[in-house]
Amino acid sequence: MSFYLMSRGLGCMGLFSGAYQSLKVLARAEKGVEVSTLAHVLEYWVVLGAITLFETTLEVLISWFPFYYFFKCITLVLLLLPEAKVREMINIAHVLFHSVIEPTMQHVRALAHERLAPLCEDLMLKHGRWLHARLLAQSLHLLPDDELVALRQQLQDKIKEIEVEIHARKKR
């Protein structure tokens, strides 16, 4: 129980520490901030966000493992270490970002492009036509005469484009 409470307290300290670091960077923005400082702050926030996301979704299941809160506290303490020589030796935010979070995100991005994008395209094609037809049917009686004429011209132009495409496909 004590490590649970300590992990909650360290989580709050992590939020305050990250906010303070961000405010320091923003205060020095006019003078020019080094890219390494910006990268450090961003890596810190990404790691803290990943820990929070992990904690929100899976902690109920994984907290039953022995020493979970102990290792979580160690990770948060390492994340909160002040910028000193120890931090240069053990920059846990940098290590976790480049060894765990970045490869995981690349894998998730590849999966999304491979599986999710085609599914979304199919759904948009199926339901997009239906939605377009319903919106057009509902809005026709609301349009003024000049916009109806313009819409008719656009539709006739679109029909000509479709006929050209059909004719081109027949030649192939």
Task: Please characterize this protein's 3D structure.
By secondary structure, the protein is mostly helical. Helix 2 packs across helix 5 (92-139). The chain has helices spanning 2-27, 35-62, 68-80, 85-89, 92-139, 145-171. The radius of gyration is 27 Å and the shape is elongated. It is 85% helix and 0% strand.
Query: Unreliable stretches, pLDDT < 50, 5 or more residues?
Result: none
Q: Secondary-structure element sequence?
A: HHHHHH
Based on helices, strands and strand pairing, what is the structural class? mainly alpha
- Ends: how far apart? 72 Å
**Average pLDDT value?**
82
The total beta strand count reads 0
Question: What is the CA-atom radius of gyration, in angstroms?
Answer: 27 Å
Shape: elongated
InterPro entries: TB2_DP1_HVA22 (IPR004345)
Keywords: Coiled coil, Membrane, Transmembrane, Transmembrane helix
Subcellular location: Membrane
Family: Belongs to the DP1 family.
